[in-house]
Design goal:
Elements lengths: L1 H19 L3 H13 L15 H15 L15 H10 L22 H4 L1
Helix pairs in contact: 1-2, 2-3
Amino acid sequence: MYLAVVYLLFCIACVVLAFRRHPIYAFYFYLSTTFVYPQGRYWGHAFAEVRPALLAAIVTTLAIVLHMGRLRPIRADVMRTPGSRRRVRRTGGRRRSGAGRQGGSEPDPEAGSTAARR
């Protein structure tokens, strides 16, 4: 039964931190309800009447609304991340042949070998 107490303390801590610090903690609460799924555990009978995923979604929404003025807007500048810079530098900004196509198995006629270009 101590796992139920640990889970309950984690959920309470996430709710408090979501309203005091940042809404990401409410998202952690939601992830815990999804992956732990207390109703499926042997200690889940204590949470039989509670819908933790719905509660987590409500807390997440309220925390986002509460912190709306303090959250930074999402930038459309994708090139700010180091991984995307490396990927563009390595591929030259082109997609690999077959990437994103429906068939995907046919070769790209423009990406042929250097012997075919001569």
